[in-house]
Amino acid sequence: xxxxxxxxxxxPHVHVERGGGVVKYWLSPxxxxxxxxxxxxxxxxSMRLVEEHREYLLExxxxxxxx
Length: 67
Fold this sequence. Notes:
Helix content is 37%, strand content 30%. 12% of the residues are buried. The longest helix is centred in the last third of the chain and has 13 residues. It has one domain. It is of the alpha+beta class.
């Protein structure tokens, strides 16, 4: 789970990679922006993790980008 340092102009979001696949989730509210190469099970698990850690991820986003 990560974000890119040059994407501060987009709304808060994270990227999740797994086995060559990638998914991007918006954080407010949590919603899938896109995915490629992930199974349904991987998507479901990654969504659950993002939802569980949403507050922490938002704090880190705002700390990093100063918003």
